[in-house]
């Protein structure tokens, strides 16, 4: 189970892994082993609640394809197991970020003292500017 938060868990059976050859340097062994991991998670076919699916699909992320499949490629390490763990963690953070609902902003009014400070600073600035004028009367 992939634990997003205590109330939300995704069964690992819904997540598909594919081992592919990694890019970049890796020595002589790089051409023989598939150490990078492709993670695929179909949002629409998952066991997530419908509202969570909608929030994930509305997320503007290049890792989410047009047909609703999250594709994550992990190739940071030379170990397939470590890359799988990295891909799972990245999936977890992506889903957690999408499901986080920010609190609504509470509208407030400026205090009387802050209004007075603002008007006082405006008056002071106006006096400074008026003193710069020429005295050609």
Number of strands: 5
Instruction: Indicate the overall shape.
Output: elongated
Counting helices, strands and paired strands, the structural category is alpha+beta
Percentage of residues assigned to helices: 25-40%
Q: Into how many domains do the coordinates divide?
A: 1
Report on this model:
With 137 residues, the protein is α+β, with helices and mostly antiparallel strands. The protein has a single domain, classed as Double Stranded RNA Binding Domain (2-Layer Sandwich), CATH 3.30.160. Helix content is 36%, strand content 19%. The protein contains three helices and five strands, in the order E-E-E-E-H-E-H-H. The strands form two sheets. It has a three-stranded antiparallel β-sheet with strand order 3-4-5, with helices on one face. A two-stranded antiparallel ribbon has the order 1-2. The N and C termini lie far apart (85 Å). The mean pLDDT is 85.
Concise structural overview:
By secondary structure, the protein is α+β, with helices and mostly antiparallel strands. A hairpin with a 2-residue loop joins strand 1 and strand 2.
What are the salient characteristics of this protein?
3 helices; elongated; Double Stranded RNA Binding Domain; three-stranded antiparallel beta sheet; alpha+beta; 137 residues
How are the secondary structure elements laid out?
Blueprint lengths: L1 E4 L2 E3 L4 E6 L15 E7 L7 H9 L10 E6 L5 H20 L12 H21 L5
Antiparallel strand pairs: 1-2, 3-4, 4-5
